[in-house]
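Suppose a colleague, Dr. K., hands you the sequence of a protein chain of 225 amino acids and asks what its three-dimensional shape might be. Before reaching for any lab equipment, you can write down a predicted structure in token form. Begin with the sequence itself:
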Amino acid sequence: MKEFRDLDQEMVKLRRESQGDRSQVTRAGFRSINGRRRILASNAVCLTKHLPDLVSDVEHTEIASALLISGDRLAAEEHYKLAVKYSTSTVFHAYTLRTYAIFLFETSRYDSGRELFDRAAKLQQDELKKIGDKGSLLYALGETYERWASVEAYAGFHAEAEQALKLAKTTYEAVAYPRWRGDALDNLKDLEVSVGIALTSTPGSSPGFSGSSATVSNQTSQLTN
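The predicted structure, expressed as tokens, is then:
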């Protein structure tokens, strides 16, 4: 999947260098990158069909992302589902559920997306209770809530976004490593500003699933004690 990441870096570089320039040369550069992405995605799909056992959950996610950028949403969704199906651990299962949830929001299936975000968060919470980690696992749970907040906000569900932001903030505040905690909270503040939400101190519950998840304060005490 290195080729996909190389194309992403090439795209970022071209955007930075072009600075909004829409000349024929710049547009040809973008078309070239997108064309190569489509070829790579097509080749990757063929590989998954002929050698399915050699394709990991993360690789299915990368393929899905490339297909989505290329405009093939149906094929992209197939690979998001395969990523969830073939998840190799609880950590990766939560990651693939979260990634598929973002896709569902992008295709206006909000309730289904919320269900997957909720499942991802519960998996991460269960893993935290077993291991007691206050570093990377807790940080990953905060990321799940942050991603959830972002897609809720951009879909126009500001009340739900605020609830997810509160969950993210409370979770990040419990991260043991000061630098990780500080960087995460700074990024979260940037998200608050970009979506126009100012958090209050009142804790909330999981967006759209208040009956199935504990409150923020209860979750934090359970995960950090």
